[in-house]
Amino acid sequence: MAPNKRLITLTLSGLALLLLPLVVMQFTDEVDWSPSDFLVMGVLLAAAIFIIELILRRVVKKQHRVALCIVVLLVFLLVWAELGVGIFGSPFAGS
């Protein structure tokens, strides 16, 4: 896949993920995101997407690409979990 097409695909995937809570909020009160929640998640998604794109463009060996992308996704998920429920109890999450 061409780098620009891949970046567009990744970006649209990130936007679709960001729209999920917005759609769910229309049907239930279980999800209650503020505008700042969307902003923070947008920044996290954008950072993860662009770091993954950078890895895919710069790293030559496939094994290294996969390993680095997995690390980026794990860091993304850990930061998201920390912000969401404070699994580590850090001041970063407001604990």
UniProtKB/TrEMBL annotation:
It comes from the Bacteria. The chain crosses the membrane at residues 38-56, 68-89. Keywords: Membrane, Transmembrane, Transmembrane helix. This is Membrane protein. The lineage of its organism: Bacteria, Pseudomonadati, Bacteroidota, Flavobacteriia, Flavobacteriales.
